[in-house]
Amino acid sequence: MTAIAKEKFKPYFDEIYRRADRVTEITIGGYFLFGLFLAFFYDTWLVGLGVGSLSLILYFGVKLLLRGKYAHHYVGSLVVAIFMAQFIYQMHGLFEMHFTAFVAVIVLMAYQNYKVFIPATIFIVMHHGIFAYIQYLGFVNNEETYQSVYFTQLDYMDLQTFLFHVGLVAVAVVIAASYSIYTRNRSKFLIQKMIESEEQADITKTNILFAKEIANSNYDKEFDLNEEDPLSSALMDMRESLKKSSIREEQERFTNKGLAELSNIIRDNGSNLKDLTYEVIEFLVKYMKLNQGGFFIVKEEGDDTFLELEGCYAYDRRKKINKKIQPGEGLVGQSYQEKDSIYLTEVPENYINIKSGLGDANPRSIIITPVKRDEYIEGIMELASFRVLKEYERDFLEKAGESIAVALNTAKVNQKTTELYQQSQQQTEEMRAQEEEMRQNMEELSATQEEMQRTQKDYEKMLADAQNENEELRKQLASKL
What is the number of other CB atoms lying within 10 angstroms of the CB of residue 111? Predict the structure, then answer.
């Protein structure tokens, strides 16, 4: 039996031993009283009191001094055999007293331990052998010659009689020891079943508590489950499956909720590029519990393409920093050129500082994500945090970038349309002003023409009048001549 098995069986066998001790102690006590009873008839008070008391002292003394040990079991075996010898002596060798040895053998069976028969058997064999030999040497039960052995009432015990005595004891001991071995093995089997039943009950109780925690969506509480139990293994597998599903649902909920709120921001600010970049970067920093972020917009001036920081959010306030980055310049320019995200968990010193109520500090992680649609980059988002981003958060930024890219393109188109419309309006106003000026000029020209026409008519009339006068003068001169 292994040490672990012995430790498990010990409480149960201790209870068996306690019951066996009570039987043995009752037997020893009864034998002591029986010895005193015999002393009345055979006047053997010295033997009855002396040997009986010493036997009780020996048994209970060993039990008291070696508390928690099993030595008193073997002492008890020896004591019941001593009482047998005491009774034989008190009754002057009465053969019937040998039955007390058989009673003792029956009593010792309660220990379910064949080893407890050894002290009694050895004592009985030695007692019979020694006293038979003494009697063989000539000592007889003769009170007159003071040669009183009181071993047997026979004058002589031959070898055959001795062997019968010893043989019967041996047979009784073998039968009792065999039955003790059987009962001990049977007890072990039953105890093992009880232990297994109790362990299974504990496992079942633990499984029930574990299942309740799973039902309450508490997947992180640890339990000391028995991995060899099929139900426990199934519950652990179920917990892991539910935990993964819960994490996946939580991540999907995080992504879907973020994209929905981002869509609302895009819808409310899609017409204004500046407001859109501010609102988007502010939302991402707050929603993802980051520390600060910047939004770079791709701009073109003639043949020159560059990234300009349009929106920046940090420490719960807006910032506007004039900053232009060329493609390939720094990590932002590199992300634009490679059209791919860059994620850093080992941020170079003085790359960027995060301002907080505790002062300036380097971030724990940096993520730079292109805002692109159909491989066309509309902008770059740069976000910094004191913590390491999880994979689903980085995936969320990738998906958010696609929605933002469409919104940016729309905002750019709207802004360009607005600029063209404003230019058209300005040109229309200028044309209207020019037309008004031309109309005024035409009116002035028309007035001038009318004035000239009136003047011309006056001149023509004056000329006609002058001609008429001249004709009259001419006629008058002609008539005088």
Answer: 26
Backbone φ and ψ of 262, nearest 5°: -65, -35
Out of 27-41, 89-103, 162-176, 183-197, give the one with best mean pLDDT: 27-41
Q: How far apart (Å, rounded) are the C-alpha atoms in residues 383 and 291?
A: 8
Q: Report yes or no: 61 and 71 within 8 Å, Cβ to Cβ.
A: no
Output the six-digit token pair for 40. Answer: 């009345």
| DSSP states of 178-242 | HHHHHHHHHHHHHHHHHHHHHHHHHHHHHHHHHHHHHHTT--S------TTSHHHHHHHHHHHHH
Least confident of 56-60, 381-385, 472-476: 472-476
- Return the closest-CA partner of residue 98 out of 62, 137, 125, 76: 125
Contacts of 206 (CB under 8 A, 6+ apart): 223, 224, 225, 226, 232
The whole-angstrom separation of Cα 384 and Cα 363 is 6
250/426 Cα distance (integer angstroms): 53
At the second CATH level, the architecture of 270-420 is 2-Layer Sandwich (3.30)
**Cα separation, 198 vs 208, whole angstroms:** 15
The CA distance from 69 to 288, in Å, is: 67
**Which residues neighbour 412 within 8 Å (Cβ) at sequence distance 6 or greater?**
273, 378
**448-459 residue pLDDT tens:** 777 777 777 777
d(CA 106, CA 173): 9
Residues 291-348: tens digit of each pLDDT: 888 888 888 777 788 888 888 877 444 444 557 888 888 888 888 888 888 888 877 7
Domain range annotation of the chain: 3-198, 270-420
Strand partners, 295: 311, 381
Cα distance between residue 36 and residue 47, in whole Å: 9
